[in-house]
């Protein structure tokens, strides 16, 4: 019963600290995100403070999924330091408990929170991001020629009328809705016919419907049109795989999306990388708990708080860099996504376990 009581006590203390750290980080992130969004969108017609707060609030579930590893690191550091400062870990050691026994509740709690986040919070995050993209796609105005950046998604379609090159500043509804859309129409001889800049474009049956359109002809004459219909024979599944944002796909749908993309001959590296990163998240959070233990367990004096914090920040930064690099390689297919997602996790687990084995068991 004593073991159950200690397990419950440590788990409760850790989860409370985890919630406090997460709340503090989300408040700061919300304020920064709202301020930055207001700076970028404040001059757009129809923008209000309330809409800016709504946009930032809808991004919070996604931000939570993004910062979970760092939240886990800082929460575990804070919880262990608090236990150390109150000599509770000293008492636990004196009663015959090893570091592994009082770290087990924290590791299990981190793993469970990560699993619940993937199972429950990720679909909520995908839905919220999708709604934000729908609003942004219809809220923003069409771009200028300077917005023809190479990083925006582009797609080519061919009909009996010629070739149309399609680009989008924002995508929503799994690629069926485009914001800040650009349509470049060519005839069968390869000559440019016209350019269409649309506030939004929707793929309906057999055509793209463009709204609030600025048409520029080859003689540089521009005219404003309320709506334009451009013929299309594209399959919705193909458009979805080309334009859909992997962040808007819930974890339960990602395997099917990856299979469809592979069947259509479209690289699915981003979808696969996102899927394996989500699957690895619980193990990553557990690894962060072990990393926190490596820089916390030996510090019991207030004078060493600075060293503890700096050590934790350095460890978290190095792991974050490894995650960013491996994710970048996985997104372009340079490394298999499953390898790119799991290598940083395995390295963090190996580092934490090895250090604790050395310090605790010699």
Write down the secondary-structure element order. Answer: HHHHHEEEEEEHHHHH
Strand order of the largest sheet: 1-2-3-4-5-6
- List segments where confidence is low: pLDDT < 50 over at least 5 consecutive residues: 142-150, 299-303
Tally of DSSP β-strands: 6
- Could you say how many structural domains there are in total? 2
Main sheet makeup = 6 strands, antiparallel
Measured distance between first and last alpha carbons: 30 Å
Mean pLDDT: 82
- The dominant shape is elongated
Structural class: alpha+beta
| Rg over alpha carbons | 25 Å
Number of helices: 10
Percent of sequence in beta strands: 15-25%
Helix content: 55-70%
Q: What does this entry look like structurally?
A:
With 362 residues, this protein is an alpha+beta fold. Helices cover 61% and strands 17% of the residues. The chain has a 6-stranded antiparallel beta sheet with strand order 1-2-3-4-5-6. A hairpin with a 2-residue loop joins strand 4 and strand 5. Helix 1 (2-41) packs antiparallel against helix 2 (49-58), helix 1 crosses helix 3 (60-85) and helix 3 packs parallel to helix 8. The radius of gyration is 25 Å and the shape is elongated. The two termini are 30 Å apart. The model is unreliable at 142-150 and 299-303 (pLDDT under 50).
